[in-house]
Fold this sequence. Notes:
alpha+beta, five-stranded mixed β-barrel, 9 helices, 22 strands, 20% helix, globular
Amino acid sequence: PQLSSDRGVMLTAMTDGGCGYAATGDLSPTGLQAALDRATQWAQATQQASVIAYNPARMPNPRGSWISPPSSITLATRREKYELLAAECRAAKLDDRIVDRYASRNMRDGEQLYLSNTGAEIHQQFRYAIPHVYVSANRDSETQTRSLGFAQQGGADILQRAGFFGCGRRLAEEALQLLLAANCPSGKMDLLLMPEQMMLQIHESIGHPLELDRILGDERNYAGTSFVTLDMFGEYQYGSPLLNVTYDPSHPEEIASFAYDDDGTRAEKVFLIRNGVLERPLGGHISQSRAAKPGVANSRASSWNRAPIDRMANLNVEPGKTPFDDMIANIERGILMTTNVSWSIDDSRNKFQFGCEWGQLIENGKLTAIVKNPNYRGISATFWRSLKMVGNPASFEVHGTQFCGKGEPNQAIHVGHAAPPCVFANVDVFGGEN
């Protein structure tokens, strides 16, 4: 068990043309004044050097609130919480080939207050109860793992939505199946990505390339640049006409839903890609001013001692019209993949190679043999154009991650991604030996 708490304040000062900030954990009037003085000094020092002209008279004055959805399940005692984890680990020990079992639950409560001297006041409260479970099976030199990771807002009810109850035995059975399975075949075939793997595909090959500060060059020496350029917005065919991607804070359970970003901009659903055409980037108000492009409310800081930068929040692929069974039935030769286990992508977020825990062949419209070590690779600029089927609303799932890293000093932040299953045509698939 671990328990920690952290609190502090980030103060931002604006002068005519300049902006500065300073953070402090000293919440006394003296500590706050000292931080404000430092921020003001930085603002004055940058008056002639800022990339945009800051104007304190134009500061917004939003007022509002946000609170994570309530939980329908209550775990009364610490013992009860630990017993839930232990029960799944016990259930996973099916035989001696199960060599590792792990279950955890990360519970976090966060509270943010945004104030300005123009009258802004935003109060937001967040709650997360995030489970993580994995089971590993071994035979001779072969080890296979199946895992459950699920990140949403809310309380103990997240366990139910995640399929946590009973997952220990299920994951153990699947790990044992993988242990006995043949290696994934290699070749060009249709690829059916389940929502859990779509999360990573969206994150790496749409989310990061569309971050406006990255496009402007801010992350070049650390997290890389982007193959996307400013002149692409409004005309570039990012994907097939079936691809519709939104920045969407309207799902209350999605982990990065909020009412306002950390610069006080109201969050609203916006299309980034519509019918395959790139429309707008992921950029907060500062990047929007620099690039003269519309963006979204995604200036986010990982903590009180970090300044907000352009981050993904909820980035979703909108559902299409195809039922899941029809997707399978329309694939002559393909493979289903789910649950990411490895990822690699170049500095411009273009060429990628991803591996999954679980694969299952699709032959003549039917799911057939389970295969292990499934991998696929492609180029972002063409991969999304091969999208040929998008699952209907009944197959739409909300997922997310706690660990998106960016910025100097580094900021690890939570990001939501929701999607239905999607089918991509003629993808380069290969097994673990290639």
